[in-house]
Amino acid sequence: ATDSSLVIDEIRSKWPSDITSHVVYQVGTILSHNDTATFELGISHHRINVEALTDILALSKCTYLVHGLSALSEAAIYLNPSLIERSINLEQYDQDDKAKYANFLKMISE
Known about the structure:
This protein has 110 residues and is mostly helical. 46% of the residues lie in helices and 5% in strands. Strand 1 (65-67), helix 4 (71-79) and strand 2 form a beta-alpha-beta unit. It is globular and about 45 Å long. The relative contact order is 0.11.
């Protein structure tokens, strides 16, 4: 989940198509076009909260979760504890833990 159109643009342009073909987007959401968080854009807090809760619920239904440091991702994992073993945080990549990432890639490709 992201509220940044910059992240979506980067995923679409840099990630392999066999990965991006599985990425799902919520249509009609409020997106920021810079580093400003959507809750700071002056848009209805109710709408932003509903979109955030919808993202959390949708993420919690995933079989695998590739994410960054995010309260939404953490909330999704709390709702679906099986994601603890089936998720990877790209912002906590540890060069010394390559086996963990290799195992994750193997698991999702099966």
